[in-house]
Amino acid sequence: MARRHMAGARDTRATGVALAEREAERGAYPSTDASDPTHVERRTPAHLAESIPSNTFSGPILVPLRSRLGDTDMIVHPLALGTSTFGWTLGNDDAFAVLDRFAGTGGDLVDTADSYASGRSESIIGSWMASRRTRDRMHLMTKVGRSAANPGLSPEAIRAAVDDSLQRLATDRIDVLFFHGEDAAVPLEESLGAVGALVDAGKVRTVGASDFSPERLIEARVLAANGLPRFQALTTRYNLMERSGFEGAPELVAHAQGLAVLPYFPLANGFLGGGIRRRADVRHDARGERAGAHLGRRGAKVLAALDDIARAHSVAPATVALAWLLAKPSVLAPVASASTPDQLDALIAAASLDLHRSELVELDRASH
């Protein structure tokens, strides 16, 4: 069953009007000519129509649908490119190659943070956008609150962090500014007030929360009702192997508030890619150990289900794992990273994969 056909079924179960409206507004931008990446047939409702700028990248635009980010005017690709490895395990040339492939296949949502590689991730992205002249077609998400230079969410730290990020990103605006975790030492109204001033100044378009508790999200919504900026997005750790941290109260609050959920570590540190089947496959580094922690009976059941569904659709297990996330009503786009351009192909393919209801049930059962 196609995901856009499933939207109607989801709407009948929705408890919030905002979700139903957002699902009804989903549209598509398929290419009509595989040899021409700038030729895009628009099939989105007229009130969501946007201009898709031409680009200099090779390859067809393969995006079957785009979605609105919260209640903003941003219509974005259903996969966000995570860039925490930029400037750390990936140098400029390798990061540029990944960004080129991502943008060349229609990607436009890039996630970073001022703390990633001490700001080098932002600098690489800024250099890439300047060299490729892609700023106006990309949606930039960055986070503040954990950098060594500007820690915390005081108004002073937020203002300084945003100015530093803008300089590294070589841009005049941040599309989505995330609070990188809660700061119990600073009243939330002060942090949101600082962002409000940045929005008024044109430096920030909208604000999101990263790893906020349901209680803090509710507090933020009350403050928004009194005129402060409203959270439009939530980043949280969520995947087939790690469900309990989001499903339950966080998911209910995100749903009720109409937050665009962007799960990070959507492949469980690479485990759901299927390359780790036994202890000997585990790499001897922090990421490898985190992936290896999922080895066991439950992990084997999940990989077996992914393998079966992947074979049925002639795709990679990672594609199925991301498609499972995209079938969740509150999920806007998984935040996934890649070390090489070729790895992106399986990630991008998730946006085109329509899982049958029986396959979703199979994955749910295997992962519980």
UniProtKB/TrEMBL annotation:
Annotated SUPFAM superfamilies: NAD(P)-linked oxidoreductase
The protein's name in its UniProt record: Aldo/keto reductase
Residues making up the signal peptide according to the UniProt record: none
Positions of region (Disordered): 22-44
A Pfam family this chain is assigned to: Aldo_ket_red
PANTHER family: NADH-SPECIFIC METHYLGLYOXAL REDUCTASE-RELATED (PTHR43364), OXIDOREDUCTASE-RELATED (PTHR43364:SF6)
Domain NADP-dependent oxidoreductase, chain residue ranges per copy: 78-366
